[in-house]
Amino acid sequence: MITSAPQLALLLLLAAPSAASLLALVPYGAVSRVAARAGSLVAVGASVSLLVTSASGTWGPYLGVDALADVLLFTVTSIYATSVWYSDRYLRAVHRPYLTPQVYYALLSAFAFTMIAALLVTDLGLMWIGIEATTVSSALLIVLERRPTSVEAAWRYTLIASAGLTIALFALLLLYTDTGTLDANRLAAAPPALTLPVLMAVALALVGYGTKVGIFPMHTWLPDAHSESPSPISAMFSGVLLPTALYAFLRVYRVLGTPVPATIQDLLLAFGLTTALAGAFLLQRQRSYKRMFAYSSMEVMGLALTGVAIGGIALYGALILLVAHAFAKSAVFYCSGNVLRETGTNRIDEVRDLRRQMPATGAAWVLAALAVTGAPPFGTFLGELLIVAGALAIGAYWIAALFVLAILVAFVGVNGQVGRMVFGEPAGGATEPSRRADAGAGIAYLNVAFALALGVASLPYLSAALRGAAALFGGGAP
Amino acid sequence: MDAAAELVGLVGVGILLSALFLQSESFVGPLVRGIALQSLLLGVLLGWLAWSQQNLDLALLAALAVAVRAVFIPWVLDRQIRAFRWRLREVHAAQRVTSHALAAIALAIVAWFVFQETLAGIFPQPGGALPFVLLVEGLLMLATRGNTIVQVIGYLEEENAVVYAGALFAPHFPLFVEVVVFLDVLGVVLVGVILSIQRDVTGTLEQGGLEELAG
């Protein structure tokens, strides 16, 4: 059992976003916005307290945390908070929104609540419900801007993600049939025999939850949903929804114990590297900058999965990569929201000269793009470096080579296009700077700064939690 | 084989035939009635298993299968079709329905043999391969059909497959009723909300006309 302070934090983590969601529906003035902001800040505070106290243990039969949950709870609540704060100006610029601000904030907080709940439960069945609930709570947010393409994206997202999760449920059925329990902690403490149903369960969980992570070839919903969502929601999709789905898979994966059977390790490597390479190459041919960043998220998820497969120091690197990417990618999408709001287009060809038109946003976009593509000294670079080091340490040279290839291709593609949009000369002459258009860029700078801090400093509590999370899977820091 | 096992196998074959019928049909009305029939058959099967095992969870699942997937969702889908005065035949599938049916039969045979070769020894229940076949058929429908209502039917078929597998292999699966309620909620959200928004915003229920989401 965990002590009273973490219990209070757990309670606040569940209560704050759910209360914010309900209060947001009050049709009075700015109640919805204030409730969402207050709820998100309380949630961040609670997650920080879990990190500070290194909370680990269970509370009742279904709730519990450990280092991995602590890290992801902090990440989810932080991006939830920054998205809530960024949403206000973004919503004001949306012409004829499909959702009222009340409904938008209610769904946004409900979306955060479902992710937090998925991270707090120790029962794999409840975790599945939490991940499925993220689909229900987030699908309608995609259609905010009332475009036909947004509706199609919401449809694809709901259908493909749910189809994948049905496969994940099949995996849990197999696991339960063989082990008689779905308690993640019990299964991890005493890993079951590696029978065919258990191995099939892990493989099917990879396919099932992998659909929600954006693993190739089940990724097709991802670029649509990320690019068609309002930017604060794109930030939450890319930054924290994908890692939360990966977390659910990791809980099933942990059942295997160590060492992981070679068949499963090979399967993860195959899916991870293919996803990273597919994302890196597919982003090259995108016409929409939001779609390009969506494929970049897919590439990073592939890199992280590869790190998990390699294990050891690479697994530690994968966790750093996930956290740093969450902050950096959310910053990218906040900047994208500013650019979309000011230029009215999401097409790369039609955006130029942002350094003059939107200097603060342009600079933040360049920095954030460098951060998501693993430029030194950001945390993403550190994470990717550790994964490469892990691959080289076990003599997997071809894996390291393919991994670096994916990074380089994505780096050149993303930064080349962002560079053109920020520094490129406009066809119709120089544009006038607009201070109004830069509103909200400060939140992007904040998140980029955090991604940078992860790379250059050993952050108190968070670094320890990352090491503890890697240790759960037999991984370790250098 | 005793009479109870024969009954389970017989209803299972009925479910399989309904799945093959869904693959070979391009008219939306019969497709909606087909999934209602499949859900009703599943409800009968679950009801029988609940009675024979004295299992309350299975009884609740049987009630859900009948009430939500055999009656409520088909009723809403039927209203959607009538209200929109939309053509009652899926445009793209109509031209290649034979190939759909052939692919569905081939996939059913492959899934059957894969199950027999891998998991049949672990799950010896009569008709144990049928939920796996049904899952594959549902995935095929989702992957190959372009009409929104037909895709909803594919989703419901997948849900039926999971419930079928759970009832046969793990009737005491914890929180199974809650999980199925969640799947049903998602089904209702799909049908009730997103279909309405799609109709309002795009004016059609056919997918594939939106070229913007390419690449």
Strand portion of chain A: under 5%
Q: Mean pLDDT of chain B, rounded to whole units?
A: 83
**Number of strand elements of chain B:** 0
Tell me the series of helices and strands of chain B, N- to C-terminal: HHHHHHHH
Largest sheet of chain B: none
What characteristic shape of chain A results from the CA principal axes?
Answer: globular
> Can you tell me the overall shape of chain B?
globular
Helix content of chain B: over 70%
What portion of residues of chain A is helical?
Answer: over 70%
Unreliable sequence segments of chain B = 209-215
- State the secondary-structure class of chain A: mainly alpha
Given as residue ranges, the uncertain stretches of chain A (5+ residues, pLDDT < 50) are: none
**How many strands appear in the DSSP assignment of chain A?**
2
Strand order of the largest sheet of chain A: 1-2
Query: Structural class of the secondary elements of chain B?
Result: mainly alpha
Mean pLDDT of chain A: 93
How many helices of chain B?
8
Distance between the amino and carboxyl termini of chain A: 31 Å
What's the assembly state of these chains? heterodimer
The biggest beta sheet of chain A reads: 2 strands, antiparallel
Write the layout of secondary structure elements.
The complex is a heterodimer of chains A (478) and B (215).
Chain A: H1 4-23, H2 31-52, E1 57-59, E2 63-65, H3 67-93, H4 101-120, H5 124-139, H6 148-179, H7 184-189, H8 196-213, H9 221-228, H10 231-253, H11 262-282, H12 289-310, H13 313-343, H14 354-357, H15 359-372, H16 379-393, H17 397-423, H18 441-456, H19 462-472
Antiparallel strand pairs in A: 1-2
Helix pairs in contact in A: 1-2, 1-4, 2-3, 2-4, 3-4, 3-10, 3-13, 3-19, 4-5, 4-10, 5-6, 5-10, 6-8, 6-9, 8-10, 9-10, 9-12, 10-12, 10-13, 11-12, 11-17, 12-13, 12-16, 12-17, 13-15, 13-16, 13-18, 13-19, 15-17, 15-18, 16-17, 16-18
Chain B: H1 3-23, H2 28-53, H3 56-84, H4 91-95, H5 97-118, H6 130-144, H7 148-169, H8 176-202
Helix pairs in contact in B: 1-2, 1-6, 2-3, 2-7, 3-7, 3-8, 5-6, 6-7, 7-8
